[in-house]
Amino acid sequence: MYWQRPDGPVFLFVGGEGPIYDFDVLAVAAFFALQYSMLHRGRKKPLQHLVRHLAERTLNGHHVDMAKDHRALLLAVEHRFYGDSINPDGLKTENLADLSSQQALADLAVVHQYISQSFNLSCRNTWISFGGSYSGSLSAWFRGKFPSLVYGAVASSAPVKAKLDFSEYNNVVGLSLMNEAVGGSEKCLAKIREAFVLVEAALIDGNFTKVAADFGCCQTPRNPDDQSELMQNLADIIMGTVQYNEEGVLISIKELCGVMTDESEEKEAEMEAYNHLVKLSQIYRSTSQEQCLDISYEKTVKDLMDTSLKTRKRAERQWTYQTCTEFGFYQTCEDTACPFSGMLTLQAQTKLCATVFGISQHSLPARIAFTNSYYGGDNPHTHRVLYVNGGVDPWKELSVVQDSSEEAQTVFIKDTAHCADMSRERLTDHHSLRKARQEIENHVARWLRTAAQEKMNNRGELL
Ligand SMILES: *[C@@H]1O[C@H](CO)[C@@H](O)[C@H](O)[C@H]1NC(C)=O
Ligand SMILES: *[C@@H]1O[C@H](CO)[C@@H](O)[C@H](O)[C@H]1NC(C)=O
């Protein structure tokens, strides 16, 4: 709709671990046949608030505005095995062998050819790719592996380094909860820590029914698996709040810390932090359609093993598979810096790979090492890839945040969370975010200029 025929550039929005919504852009479903969050294994509750918001990002984000400015042909390509790009029996474990980032990149190459044919494109059309989170990594890797197909790439909050035990995630969550620039405080972090210690203590004392009643659980957390499921659910509220701070999630870090450090209520000194966590979980539960908090481990496993295609939004099974085979990314809490419960172990997370897919836990380190050697980890030696990260975002730990070469290839936004730059400008945006978008625009404009010059020079040589 913005495209200047026949020579205008092509802006490719790379799909990630979720469906692409196909309104405003020319969406191409991956062959055979916005993004969700990479939060844990795609938890249900905090996510509901995200899906719509993130979908908006696909449709009218910063890249759409840039496409308008540069009169670009705008494309969005859904990742195979997500959204509508799944074969009818595609989620069966034996079929998941075709689900990988490498296959997704190969799909992009085929889409490049297909689009080039259908729109009569030539080497005069300069391709630029965009993506955020996992799809940001794909955007960077597409440029790295197929440099002749895409001239430049923007990779927002892209965890390009695979890591089995991603304990840094929760360490950054802790630091962000202390960060006064975004409404955190030392006290807030201390209260959260204390609250989790108290919940653990209550479980150790065997006060199962009280804990179940306090947090509105559907089941009584008697067995250790359900107990860690409860802890995961509680931690997810806080992890999600930090990762998507001020990006359309239910509450911000500032508001969360307001609840956790509230002194207005009657002081029941001992259990104060516990009660504040109860309050926080109530705020979340009141917005969910479910009557109670599901903490059944058995049900989690059953859902992950379910191969039916009930809804195109399904992503947990597929994304969990990719964590087992390629990335790890397990947000554990065994490190003392983690503010939540030590019940969130690497062992529990990797056990799911074996239970759900029959993938041996011992095979994981080698798989992750392969991913890093194949793509280059956080030292990818890519040229004309711009890595954008936010200081509050835990995923920055696995991205590229320092320029290794003379050519600037990173943008760091101090006070923003995950993929903030991808949204269209809002009145409430921090100055640093506006400045970052401007920098991205400058890079893209420069790439298009140099591409045009190179083409002129080549033509000159031919004449
Ligand atoms: C591509 O070129 C062919 C032949 O010149 C023409 O018939 C067709 O309409 C063109 N397609 C587009 C999308 O411009
Ligand atoms: C468990 O319940 C008992 C009885 O209500 C109470 O005295 C005790 O403090 C509780 N333990 C914890 C750790 O909350």
From TrEMBL:
Transmembrane segments: none annotated. Keywords: Glycoprotein, Hydrolase, Protease, Signal. SUPFAM superfamilies: alpha/beta-Hydrolases. Pfam families: Peptidase_S28 (PF05577). Belongs to the peptidase S28 family. PANTHER family: PROTEASE S28 PRO-X CARBOXYPEPTIDASE-RELATED, THYMUS-SPECIFIC SERINE PROTEASE. This is Thymus-specific serine protease. It comes from Ameca splendens.
